[in-house]
Write a structure and sequence with these properties.
This protein is of the alpha/beta class and 117 residues long. The chain is built from 5 helices and 4 strands; from the N terminus they run E-E-H-E-H-H-H-E-H. The two termini are 17 Å apart.
Length: 117
């Protein structure tokens, strides 16, 4: 598998990003479609609205959020396999909008893509 990176949508595109996929359910504030420079917006692999609202980016909830999110991803194997196929042929950048580089859904998604459920 080629590199899978996580990156904030607000960061500039880099040549080494490869295939850029937004993995949030909601479009990020202040980012135009042109500036985002995406290859794909995959809402299917994003946390459900209910889970996202419950988590509310609270650090003390991240462990439970990650567990619940992995459970949701068990129902998304087809989408996960599409991302794995891309990652096998070129670098894959999972883009997220959260402020925290360590408390976000892209971290969990990357782990699932690399290790499986």
């Amino acid at each position: 598998m080629k590199a899978i990176k996580i990156k904030r949508i607000y960061d500039e595109r880099a040549e080494e990003d490869g295939y850029r996929v937004l993995v949030d359910r909601i479009w990020p504030r202040g980012v135009s479609k042109e500036k985002a420079n995406l290859d794909e917006w995959n809402k299917e692999v994003a946390p459900s609205t209910e889970l996202r609202k419950w988590f509310d980016h609270k650090e003390e909830r991240f462990e439970e959020f990650a567990l619940r999110y992995r459970n949701e991803l068990k129902e998304k194997e087809e989408e996960l396999n599409k991302l794995r196929i891309i990652a096998n042929s070129e670098p894959l950048s999972l883009l997220y909008a959260a402020k925290s580089p360590i408390l976000n859904n892209a971290i969990v998604l990357k782990e699932v893509l690399l290790k499986g459920l």
